[in-house]
Structure formats: structure tokens, C-alpha cells
Amino acid sequence: MCDHIGRYLYLTTEGDDFEGRGFEPDLLVNSKDALDRTLKMIKYYNINERHMKKRLGETVRNDVGFGICLSL
Questions:
Q1: What does the pLDDT read at residue 21?
Q2: Are 71 and 62 within 8 A, CB to CB?
Q3: How far apart are CA 34 and CA 28, in angstroms?
Q4: Is 24 within 8 Å of 65 (Cβ atoms)?
Q5: How does DSSP classify residue 33?
Q6: Distances (CA, A) of 27 to 16, 31, 52
Q7: What are phi and psi of 41, to 5 degrees?
């Protein structure tokens, strides 16, 4: 799958679109509460580095696949 056509072209082997999509669903909070709410969400769902690496895919994963980013 191809993602981010414009100045950059990012291709992944698994066809995911995480780079352009991010985590879903989008959660909207007041900016003054953003850090506190984020930390509470991380604690509540017990999110750790292993979970982040799994969701971020090719950008941080070393064991499977690869990503290609071309600067145009």
C-alpha cells in the first residue's frame, strides 16, 4: 500500500496506513487537559512500549518487514 503522496512517498510491506491514520478513534479534549488525560489513558489501558511498537509497525519494528520513505 502507498501512503502519503505529496512531498513524501511511504510504502509498507503490510499495507497498513498507521502513519497517516494514527490511533483510532480520535479523542478530543481541551488542550490544558491533554497531557493528564493521555497519561490516565495509558495507565488505564496498561499501554507499554511493546504495545506501541506493535501499533507503530514498520517505523519502529526491526523483526518483520520494512518501510520505505522517499523524499521528493
A1: 64
A2: no
A3: 9
A4: no
A5: G
A6: 21, 12, 17
A7: -65, -45
